[in-house]
Amino acid sequence: MNIQKDINICFEKLKELQESDELIDALNQLQIQNKIFYQLVRRKNEEKISNNKK
């Protein structure tokens, strides 16, 4: 199973990164990207609502 092999590789990489700041940096970057994404989605939804009220 390739999927299981990929999952195992990911877990091994996570174990290696756990001790380093790289994992923390990557998670912080992901969190920032998620915040930006949700802000964009919220703005788009507000625009749609505003346009529907017109």
From TrEMBL:
This is Uncharacterized protein. It comes from Tetrahymena thermophila (strain SB210).
